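Quick log. Single chain, no ligands specified.
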Amino acid sequence: MFPADEQPAEPPAPRWSGSAAVPPPKPRKRAWGESAEIRPVPAPAPPPEQPEHLTPVDPWAGADTGGWDLPPPPPPTPTLPYPVAPSPRPHSGPPAAPVHSPAPPEPPRPAPPRVSHPAAPPPAYPVSPPPVAYPVSPPPAPARPAPPPPTPPAPPRQRRAPAPPPGPQAPQGYAPKPTRRRRRWPWILLLMLACCCGCPAYYGVPMASQYPADAALPAEVADLRLRDDNTSKATAKQLETEVRKAHWLAEDTFAGVYSTAAGKRVTLFGGTGFRFTPESDAEDEMTRLTGQYSLGEAQVVDTGVRGRHQRCAVGRADGQDVVVCTSVDHGSIATAVFTRLSLDDSAALLGTLREQVVTTNQK
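-> predicted structure:
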């Protein structure tokens, strides 16, 4: 505390230091749950001393600053260019000109005058020693003279003619007999003959064995008897007319009605003549009789004879079930209508009738 008549002396204004004044810190906020008791605020730390108020220190005080003049570096030693080596590739032209020796080295230049520099304070860090001058390699030896031109290569040796093979030789003055090459035309000829003759033989044998053919109705076949009454004759005549209309290229036609003592009835009709496609003719015959006998789906029957095709189907005629079968080969066609027989029995019976009715020149 000062008396009322005394006033405190004003502190001297701080010198400018080039830095902005630091504002005082703001009062700390009370954390959550902290007691509201007023705690004494610590006094602010005194400001740090400014560098302007400190006494400067000479780092070179008491140091010997003389003897720092360094001698100038020696001048660089001139180097000589390396001579170009001659090409080692031989050639047949004139010899190359001799290579001249390299020019003498230039005299060294005088060193520049030494200039003294004022003494400079020694550095605070260690100074590296001056660079060490290493010896320079001597100049290369003079180039060797060019080698003499190579000698031309010797002419290639002529190859000897191959020796004749061992064996009988042709007399002198006559040309040797050329070796005959083995021909392969017999194999090609045999293949052509097999193709040209094998295919016609495969298809021609059935035609030759089945055509021409003749037909004649026997009076008895197994347990069947040929009926000779007027009604049967009229039926046979009508069937022959229908066969002639359907197969107008047929050479001969036949028809007849057979029966057994048990009441079974077989109506047989057909014709003879050459047929190139018997399989198609058998299908056409079944198609022609489908409407007349109300036939179902035709079934293929294996005859066991190459070139002979047989078809059978079940139908109805005069209010009773019937089986219609047809057998066609390259020389004839035979069709039969069976009553009171199964399809398999009808197919077997037709084969038996055909063997008795149709005959060929082979028999």
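The domain at 211-360 is CATH 3.40.1000 (Protein Transport Mog1p; Chain A).
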